[in-house]
Amino acid sequence: MTLSTSTRAPGPVRRRVVAGVVAGFLGMGAALGSGLLTAASAADPTTVSGIVLGVGANETQRIVSWYSSADTAQKIQLAPTAEIVNGEFPANAVSFDAVGAANTSTTGFNRHATISNLRENTAYSYRVGAEGSWSPAYAFKTQDFEGDYDFLFFGDPQIGSSGDRLKDQAGWEETLKVATGANPNAELLVSAGDHVESANDEGQWTSFLAPDQLRQVPLVATIGNHDVGGKAYEQHHFTPNTDRSAQYYNGDQATRSGGDYWFIHKDVLFIDLNSNSYANPADGSAGGDAAHVAYVTDVIKKHGSEAKWKVLVYHHSIYSPASHATDTDNKQRREDFTTAFSNLGVDMVLQGHDHSYSRSYSIKNGQKENPAEKPGAPEVYPGPGGVIYVTANSASGSKYYDIKKPDDSGTGVRGNGADPLDPDKYWYNSVQNQEHVRSYVKVQVRGDKLVLANVRSGTCAAPNAAVEKGLSCVNTPEGQPVGSIVDKVTVHPYHGDGQAIQVNVPNAAPGEFGWTIDGYNGLVDLGTAQERDGTYFEATGKINPILVSDSRRSLAPWSISASVGDFSDADKTFSGSYLGWTPYVLDAGAGAQAGAAVLSSLDDQGKGLSASSGLGAAVQGHPRGGAKLGADLDLKIPDSIAKGSYRTTLTITALSS
User: Fold this and answer.
1) How many Å apart are CA 589 and CA 513, to the nearest integer?
2) pLDDT in tens, 112-158
3) Residue 598: what pLDDT?
4) C-alpha span between 494 and 381 (Å, rounded)
5) Residue ranges covered by each domain of the chain
6) In 10 A of CB 596, how many CB atoms?
7) Domain 146-491's class?
8) What DSSP letter does each residue of 403-457 carry, written as one string?
9) Strand-strand pairing, 149-154 and 388-391
């Protein structure tokens, strides 16, 4: 009889597996599919609420937090948006298990999970819950993981502080709509804290989380003084790299919420502090501002070299122009923070709390660094140790504080005296502004500068709750419309007495992993089987070699495997298990190692090549390059097989992570 095998397609064949999260989906699908969660019963479905997309430890991560009506196993399901068909997630959608517990501010349970292994320049869709009780799907997109980007900074929404939660919500929603509409590629939404008026009022949290932008662009959450008094902040915002030890809190353990945390996004190291704790313990133990300084010092020591810029975020503004400017606790923070921040090379500090806008002069060790720096200068060149402090005005319009006049306390570290160059301002502020209109701060991160702009997101008109309730307004829509600039400054880095040299290296092609059948003959002819010992037939041959190439920078592991179906000739068949092989490497490269030999089932009563078997593979970290893989085929069949010319298909599969 004549026996042959063939690949599924004649002629040259090319198969590719793209490096990145798609390959992860392919490699993980079976494991995840085997662990599907039990759906809630139709009579009592689990509902989820308060979904918020949070920042992860780096560009490849996002942390999603939400509330659940039931204490059931839940997860995030994620897929590239391009793979969502008619609203259905694909079978290979990746899942991330959630963790959580009963929440303390309302009935129900909190959950969070971390999305990881995201790839750049990709649109993703996600949903949370479990089979049978999924949330609606939401979408976000990643951008380049290197290079320039913009982020948006928002002052205290403090939903509920006007006395009308829904008016406050309307202003907050409008600011996010305006800001993201004008900056559709902004990569982060950074909070100054005081998300709500009352920490345990879930109605206020619902209003704060109402804008869909909070499910589309990662939020960098900051805890304010109105966000403490319960655990809701921490339950709504799980943050990366967070130190939640007692030294970062004031008050009873049951009400502690939030901690100091850090993350890196492209060229910026962000460090976010729980500034509600500031008092240093009398016994000298770690706590309060001393603990914050120790935390910042440790993070910058370990990770400062990984970024070009260092940006701190916390709630209580230490250089602001309004009601909180003279607070004793903020004067204490000036004394505790400023010299440390200068010594650590911090570039910018983003703050809230005072519901007004200000941009400081370059401050070094608690003093104006350059006495000649002009008020409102559009270009600033801080020397070594110079730090710019920014306070954001209200993003919702729920509350504004009016600017106060300087006093006679001087220009010392704790002083609130007048600016010699502009006696109507405090000595430390280059710009102060209060118009009783909503605004946000746009920060452009560039390789050679930070560009900061305070932008109006509203006018005197509604939604502007505080003004609607009788507060005066000095903004004129004709001259100062939505989108107009209150203040703009370019902050240039210090390069010493030398000349800094910069070069941008473009993204190299990520490379690819693939395989090709060597040659154009897809048919492997084993010829005519020979009788052996009067008990079986045997035919031998070689596969057409497989050419493997791997040019990926990730040096991820790869494998090539294959299997065959039944041999057939019209209505006559015999099992593919009778075919075995011995793989080998013809041309070494790309870390290739040959797979194990597989015997015909006639020899070991196994499955032979009817089960997928490895032809070759390489481990993580292998060199880039190419290899040629081959295999000797050995077919042994019982002599009872009917005469015929039989064929089967060798199906080749490539996998990589």
Assistant:
1) 13
2) 999 999 999 999 999 999 998 999 999 999 999 988 999 999 999 99
3) 97
4) 7
5) 45-145, 146-491, 513-656
6) 9
7) alpha beta
8) PPPP-SS-SSTT---EETTEEEEETTEEEEE--S--EEEEEEEETTEEEEEEEE-
9) unpaired
